[in-house]
Amino acid sequence: MALLEVENLQTHFATLDGVVRAVEGLSFKIDAGETVAIVGESGCGKSVTSMSILRLIQEPPGKIAGKINFRGRNLLDLPDVEMRKIRGKDISMIFQEPMTSLNPVLTVGRQIGETVRLHEGLTAQEAEKRGIEMLGLVGIPAPERRVKEYPHQLSGGMRQRVMIAMALACNPKLLIADEPTTALDVTIQAQILDLMRDLKTRVGAAIMLITHDLGVVAEMAERVVVMYAGRKVEEATAVQIFGNPQHPYTRGLLGAVPKLGSSLQGHGRTKLTEIQGQVPSLRQRIVGCAFASRCPIVTDVCRQVAPAVEAKTPGHYVACHYAERAVAA
Amino acid sequence: MNPKAPMNASRPLLEVNGLKKHFPLKSGLFGGKKGYVYAVDGVTFAIDKGETLSLVGESGCGKSTVGKAILRLIEPTAGEVFLAGERIDNIPISQLRPMRRRIQVVFQDPFSSLNPRQRVRDIIAEPIVNFGLAANGSELDDRVAELMDKVQLPRDAMKRFPHEFSGGQRQRVGIARALAPGSDIIICDEAVSALDVSVKAQIVNLLSDLQDELGLSLLFISHDLAIVEHLTHRVAVMYLGKIVELADRRTLFATPHHPYTKALLSAVPVPDPTAKRQRIILHGDVPSPINPPSGCRFHTRCPFVFDRCRSEEPQLRRVAGGQMSACHLDEVPDVAVIPKAA
Amino acid sequence: MTSSTLMASGLSVGDVAAAPALPDVLAPRKQRSRIGMFMYRHPTIFVGGLLVALIVAIALLAPLLFTTDPTALAPARRTRAPSAQYWFGTDMLGRDVYSRVLYGSRISLIVGFSVALLASVVGLTIGLLAGFIRILDTVVMRVMDGLQSIPGILLAIALMALTRASVENVIVAIAVTQVPPVSRLVRSVVLSLREQPYVEAAVAAGTRTPIIILKHILPNTLAPVTVQATFICASAMITEATLSFIGAGTPPIIPSWGNIMAEGRALWQVKPYIVFFPAIFLSITVLAVNLLGDGLRDALDPRLAKRI
C-alpha cells in the first residue's frame, strides 16, 4: 500500500468574487521512502495541495473534498485531536520562509524540543538532548551552543537547517517541503539540497517536494507530478519527465527554462520557448482542457472535453488527448 | 547577434571606476556612527553601446547598490561614473537630468514598481513629458502607443490601472517606461526574478529583441546564472562588494577562473536528472559586509585558501583564460594545481 | 457542432477519454445587485455611512422636523417629562430638549468635520514636507513630540482659555491637538513610499521633486489620512462635548450636545432625560463615524484589498 494516496482532491475557497477552485480533482500516490516533486507555476495549486494534506486549510472559507489516505486512514475523516497527533509527528513540513516560520522569542532548542515533548512525552532534559542531536544531524556546527540561540542570531541557511531539524525530530514518515530553498542563495541552496539528499538516505522519510524550480526537481525527485490550474497534467519518473515530456504544458515549461551551459553549444543567443497567454481564472468552472487557451496544438475537442489522466506508457500519466501527437510536433 | 560586443574606438558608453558605497551604521541616542556597511567597495567596469553586461552574485554582494549608485538614487561614496565620456557621479542633481534621459531602470518587483494610482498611459508618458519629448497631446499619445506596440501590450491597456494586469504584463509596462525617453542604457535590477518560468521566458526574449532592434546597452543585475547566460555578452561576478571575475560569456561559463565563480556555477541546479556533475559545496555563510574578512574576502569559504589570501588582497588582473580575475591562484607556482570543476 | 474541424484533427468527441465530472464542493456565489454586493463586502461602511448620512440629514433638516426655536425660554413649562408635545421633555428654562438636541447635532458635525479637515490638511502638509526635507524633519518632529506630550484635552482647555468661547476657536483648539498624530502618520507613510520602486523609477525618469510629491506620494497618502480623519472626526466630537460640558467650549447660548448635558447635569438625578437624549445622540454619532472609519481602513488597506 502506498504511504500517501490522494484521490480526487478538491480544495475550493469561497471568496467575495466567487468560488476559487484551487485544486480540482487531483490524484497521486507517494510510496514510503520516495521523493515526489509537485511542480507548477504560482497559482497552480501545489501549495494548497500540501496544506490540504495537513488539513491546514481554514474551513470556511475553504473546503476540502475527496480522499487523502495516509497509511490506510482517510485524513479528511479524522477528528481534530487525531489530526493534531499526525501533524509534526507522522507528517511534518518545511516552509519556504525560515524567518517567519520560526518563533522569534524562543530559542531554537526550545522549538525543536516542543515538538518531541508534545508527541513523545520527553522531559525537558531529554528534549534538549534531542535538540542538540538534531542540530548536529543537520550539520550545524557547535550544536550545544546553537540550541541556546534565537532565530535572529542565525543566517538564512542555518534557519532552514533548524526548520529541517524540527521537521525530522519525530522521525516522520512523510516530509512535505514547500519551496524549501526558494528564499536561499544559490550556494546555500546547494548546501540544503545536499543535506536533504544525505538525510533522506539516513532517515528514510518520504519527501513531497513542492517547487517551481525544475533544476531542484531534477536534482531531488524520483517521480514528478506537473500541475496546471489545480489539475495534474502529467506524472512520470523524473527521467521520463525531463527526457520524454508528453504534455504540451510540460514541454513548454521545460523549453522556457534556460539551461546553464547553453552558450557552450551554440553561437550567440538562443530564444527561449514562450508559453503564450496567461493561466485561466480559477473562479469559473473550466470547460474542456484547462490548458486549451494556451496550447499550441489545441483543437475543438480540447475545448469541449476535459482529457482524462491516462497512462500512455506504464507509470507515465498524461492528461492530453494528443499526447503522442505532442511528442511528434 | 554576436556575443562579442562591438568594439568601439572611442570610449565605452558607460564607465564605472572604483565605485564605492559605504552605508554608515548609526547607533545611540545622538546617531553617532558605529561603523560602515561596505556594500560596494571599489567596482570597476565598462559597457559598450549595444552590449549587455551582467552583474551576478548572491544577496548582499552589492550588485543592486551598484545600479542605484550609477542612477544616483543613492549617492556613491567614492569613485567615478562616466556616461559617453562625461562624468556624472559628482555633478549636482539639478544638472543630472540630461543624463537621466539616457539611463533608465527596470526594477524587480512588477507590483511595487508601478504607481498603483496611475493609469498605464500616464506611467509610460511620464518620462516623455519630463524631458519635453512630445510637442503636444496627440504626439504624446502616438509615442505611448508606439512604445506599447514595442513591448507587445494591447493598445486598450492604456486606460487601465496596474492592478488589472498580470506580473509579466506589468513588467512590460515598466520596460516601456524605461524605453520612453529614448534611453541608451537600461539597468535591469533583477528584472525577471519575480516572474514565473513561462513569463520569465517572454520577458527575457523581449529584452533581447529590443536590444537588437534599438542598439540598447543593458546592465543586467541578477542572481540567476542560467538567465544571465542566455542574454549577456559579458559577466561580472561580485562577492561582498567587489568584482571577483569579469569575463566574456563564453569564457566565464566554459572556463571560470575564480574559485567563487566555479562554486557558483556548480551550485546551480540543472534541469536534467541524468546529468552527472562534480559539485563544489561551499561551507559556511557569506560574511557580514560590516566586517569584511581581511585579504581576499572569499578566503573564509574558499576551498583553495592559503596564507597569502588571508593577508593580501588580490587585485583584478588578466589571467591565462583571457578573463579578469581577482585571485592569487596561478600567481604562485606551487599552488597552481587547481582541481577541475564542472 | 463543427464536425469538419474535428475531422481534420483526427479525433472526435466520442473518441477521447473524458475526465470524470467533479461536483461543486461549495455552493456557487449568490447573484447580488451592486448595492447588495457593496453591503456584503463592506458591511461596516454601509452601516456607518447610512447612520452618518441620517445624522447629517437630521442636522440639515432640523427646522423641518417639527422643532421649535431651541433657544426660546418658557419658564412656565420647565422640566416637563417627555410627552406627545415635548418628545424629549423640556429643560429647567422650559426649552424644548428635542429641538435643542436636533439643532445641537449641527454643532457636533461642524466641529467634527472641520477639525478632521483642518487637522488632515495641516498634518498632511507638515508630514509631506518633513518626509522630504531632512532639516525640517528634525525640527518639526520635535515640536510635534512636545505637543503630543501634553494631554489633548488639557491643551485644548489651555488654548480655549487664551481666547473667547466660539465655535471657530473650539475647532482650532481641537485641531491643534490632532495635527501631531496626522503629521506623524503622513511622515512615516512618505518615508516608506520614498523607498518604493515606483518612486525611485520616477526619480530615474527625471521627474522633478514637486511633481513626485504631488503625483506619486500624495495620492498614496490619502487613503491612510482619510481613515485617520474619520477617527479624528469622532474624537473631536467627544472633545467638543467635553469642553462644552466643563464650560470651556462653545458659548452656552449655542445649543450643543455638551452644553445641553452640562445644563442638565444639576438635575441628573431627578430629570435624567435632559442628559440622556444628547448623550445617546452623541454616542450613536461617534459610533457611526468610527464604524465608517473601520470600514474604510479595511477597504483601503492594500494588504486586505488583494483578495484571492
Helix/strand layout:
The complex is a heterotrimer of chains A (329), B (342) and C (308).
Chain A: E1 4-15, E2 18-30, E3 35-39, H1 46-53, E4 62-70, E5 73-74, H2 80-86, E6 91-94, H3 98-101, H4 108-120, H5 124-137, H6 143-146, H7 156-168, E7 174-178, H8 186-203, E8 206-211, H9 214-220, E9 223-228, E10 231-237, H10 238-243, H11 248-256, H12 262-265, H13 300-304, E11 310-313, E12 316-318, H14 323-328
Parallel strand pairs in A: 3-8, 3-9, 6-7, 7-8
Antiparallel strand pairs in A: 1-2, 1-4, 4-5, 9-10, 10-12, 11-12
Helix pairs in contact in A: 4-5, 4-7, 5-7, 7-8
Chain B: E1 14-27, E2 32-47, E3 52-56, H1 63-70, E4 78-83, E5 86-87, H2 97-102, E6 103-106, H3 120-130, H4 137-150, H5 167-179, E7 185-189, H6 197-214, E8 217-222, H7 225-231, E9 234-239, E10 242-248, H8 249-254, H9 259-267, H10 307-311, E11 317-318, E12 324-325
Parallel strand pairs in B: 3-8, 3-9, 6-7, 7-8
Antiparallel strand pairs in B: 1-2, 1-4, 4-5, 9-10, 10-12, 11-12
Helix pairs in contact in B: 3-4, 3-5, 4-5, 5-6
Chain C: H1 3-9, H2 34-41, H3 43-60, H4 97-132, H5 134-149, H6 152-162, H7 167-194, H8 197-204, H9 209-245, H10 257-264, H11 273-300, H12 302-305
Helix pairs in contact in C: 2-3, 3-4, 3-11, 4-5, 4-7, 4-9, 4-11, 5-7, 6-7, 7-9, 8-9, 9-10, 9-11, 10-11
GO cellular component, one term (chain A): plasma membrane
Domain ABC transporter (chain A): 4-254
Keywords (chain A): ATP-binding, Cell membrane, Membrane, Nucleotide-binding, Transport
